[in-house]
Amino acid sequence: MPLITLEGDISITTFEPPSGFDPLAATDAELEQYGFPSRPDHPRLLTLYQRVFTRLKGRLKYIEPAFRISREASGDPRDRLPSASVYTGDNWSGGVVQPPPGKSFNQVLGQWVVPNAYPMSGEVFLNSYWIGLDGFTGSGAGEALQAGVDCFLFGTSSSLYPWHQWAPSPKVAITNLIVSAGDLVMINISASPGAGATTAKVSIANISSGAATSYVILAPSSQKLAGNSAEWIVEADPDHLADYGQVFFDNCIACAGNCGAGGGTGEKLDISRGNIPISEATLITSQIIQCRYSV
Fold first, then answer.
1. For burial by CB atoms within 10 Å, which of 108, 212, 285, 286 has the most?
2. Are 2 and 14 in contact (CB under 8 A)?
3. pLDDT of residue 45
4. What burial letters (b/e) apply to 114-136, b meaning 16+ CB within 10 Å?
5. Rounded to the nearest 5 degrees, what angle is found at the Cα of 145, between the Cα atoms of 182 and 12?
6. DSSP state for residue 51 in the 8-state scheme
């Protein structure tokens, strides 16, 4: 298992599964050895697991990931104001859920079709679509474990790439897993046992192309997972959000041991600036969250 070290004391362990590896036929030990997500115990998650890898059967192309430090950092939900189960701020739109009392989240997953965003001027825009643990409230507010897809736009040009971040460490981009607007992506972050975890496995699959990767990351020095929130988010850069139309986060599930919580069962977050709605979220079902550009 190759170990990659990046600036900022970031350590990433990657995997080298054999050609033709079939997660559906693999043993639990083989899944662990080659970095694939564990086979879930929860019946609903097991059904989803089998559906995804059945869809990828014969098309799965494991990518040994290459990384670079990204200077585009994610931020916490600034200036949020709660009102009637809606948090309005200037950079996060989506859904957030908290674990049952006495529990902590150790896994979050979701899938979505990557939007085709449009800049409205010659300025630079950065739209970010991600799932994550922590970063919202309480003891987890100071750190966030996230993974998603960034869309960097300038003029008529755009660049899309998957990434992860365990804040306050820098964001890390994957440079060789291609993602395009219209692709269906699925991301799974697991950090056992939940509260106190210092390692996490990030699994990213482009279901449209069949490309997938997974790897293990270390928490920043002196940081530990709190596991007290899970999120499915469209994030604006500090000044702008390009018109992304809408995005539906599906299979929004967070796990706390043998308990699960749907992302649509919590609270929603909207982006508003100067009392003007920018991006609004709708909790469609317990597992589907819609975010819609509203300017």
1. 108
2. yes
3. 82
4. bbebebeeeeebbbbbbbbbbbb
5. 90
6. H
**DSSP per-residue letters across 128-178:** EEEEEEESSSGGGTT-EEEEEEEEEEETTEEEEEEEEEEETSPEEEESSS-
Tokens of 6: 């990046």
The secondary structure of residue 264, as a DSSP letter, is G
Helix, strand, coil distribution of the chain in percent, nearest 5? 10, 50, 45
DSSP single-letter state for residue 169: S
The two three-digit tokens of residue 209, written as one number: 């192309």
Q: Where are the domains of the chain?
A: 81-293
CA 236 vs. chain centroid, Å, equals 15
Residues 6+ apart with CB under 8 A from 60: 21, 23, 53, 210, 212
Q: Which amino acid is at 36?
A: F
How does pLDDT run across 21-63, given as a tens digit for each residue?
A: 999 999 999 999 999 988 887 788 888 889 999 999 999 999 9
Q: How distant, in Å, are the alpha carbons of 107, 191, 208, 232, 284 from that of 235? A: 21, 23, 23, 10, 19
Q: What are the DSSP calls for 68-82, one per residue?
A: EEES------TT-EE
* CATH 2.60.120.700 holds for 81-293: yes
Question: What residues contact 272, with CB distance under 8 A and at least 6 apart?
Answer: 88, 89, 90, 278
User: Which helix or strand (DSSP H or E) is residue 248 part of?
Assistant: strand 246-256
> Tokens 């990931």 map to which residue?
65
Is the CA virtual torsion 52, 54, 59, 63 positive or negative? positive
Per-position DSSP letters for 71-136, written without gaps between them: S------TT-EEETTEEEESSEEEEEE-PPTT----EEEEEEEPP--B-SSSSEEEEEEEEEEESS
The predicted-structure confidence for 187-201, as pLDDT tens digits, reads as follows 999 999 999 999 999
N- to C-terminal Cα separation, the chain: 47
